[in-house]
Design goal:
By secondary structure, this protein is an alpha+beta fold. Helices cover about 30% and strands about 30% of the residues. It has helices spanning about 20-25, 45-50, 70-80, 100-110, 140-150, 190-200; strands at about 5-15, 35-40, 55-65, 90-95, 130-135, 155-160, 180-185, 210-215, 220. It has a 9-stranded antiparallel sheet with strand order 8-5-7-6-2-3-1-4-9. The longest helix is centred in the last third of the chain and has 15 residues, at about 190-200.
């Protein structure tokens, strides 16, 4: 069977302070590129207690990896990061539409030793999607209330700023308005109703000025509704 060298984006969401451990773990497999950012969990307190997540502050780690390493990396994440235990975090991979040739060669060359000797038959993967909603700062509650009413369990918030036309700047300071980026990992069958609910509550026609899109997820670990 031909080795899968297509590069994926692997995203890991862990409690604050554990992102470094994930980056070190995957760097030990020869993966050279890791990027981290702070995030904030959006699950309500009742769900947090149920899942054992007392802290909503998160580390979000982005890692680039070739496909043939994923079976081994999932096993390592389950064991070393305890992602097989509900509430310890989530991991998922997203296919890339393109990547620079030099970067792809470097990633595949460095990560080669992480693959073949640990290859195993891939289990059947559940189909999931990552919903991304970019809204005005402070509007995440509207997004998550609508998403949860439609079946979502929680999400992760990243903070950013819009960069675009001059009339998007706020006030005389010329500062670009703050944006919140809400990411919600859901089973594919819930994608459409959740996106419709969020668009109605926080879409472009609302004060939230939300922009919504979704990405296909190939592999996922740590989704509590799949393990019950």
């Amino acid at each position: 069977m031909r080795e899968d060298t297509r590069v994926r984006l692997m995203v890991i969401v862990l409690d604050r302070g554990k992102g470094v451990r994930a980056a070190e773990l995957f760097a030990g497999c020869g993966l050279p590129f890791h990027y981290g950012t702070p995030g904030r969990g959006t699950a309500n307190s009742e769900l947090l207690d149920y899942l054992g997540l007392g802290d909503t502050e998160k580390d979000v780690v982005f890692t680039l990896t070739p496909g043939h390493t994923i079976p081994a990396l999932l096993g390592m994440a389950a064991e070393k990061l305890q992602l097989a235990v509900p509430g310890k975090g989530i991991l998922f991979t997203v296919p890339l539409s393109a990547i620079g040739g030099a970067a792809a060669r470097h990633i595949c060359g460095q990560a080669h030793r992480a693959g073949k000797e640990q290859e195993e038959a891939m289990p059947e993967q559940w189909k999931n999607d990552l919903i991304v909603a970019v809204v005005n700062g402070g509007c995440t509650d509207a997004v998550m209330e609508a998403a949860k009413a439609a079946g979502a369990r929680g999400g992760t918030v990243l903070h950013g700023r819009r960069m675009g036309e001059a009339d998007e700047k706020s006030g005389e300071s010329g500062v670009w308005p703050e944006k919140d980026i809400v990411t919600i990992l859901v089973p594919r069958e819930l994608r459409q109703p959740i996106m419709e609910a969020v668009n109605h509550a926080a879409g472009a026609a609302t004060e939230s000025r939300g922009v919504l899109f979704s990405l296909p997820v190939e592999h996922a670990m740590g989704l509590s509704w799949r393990e019950s």
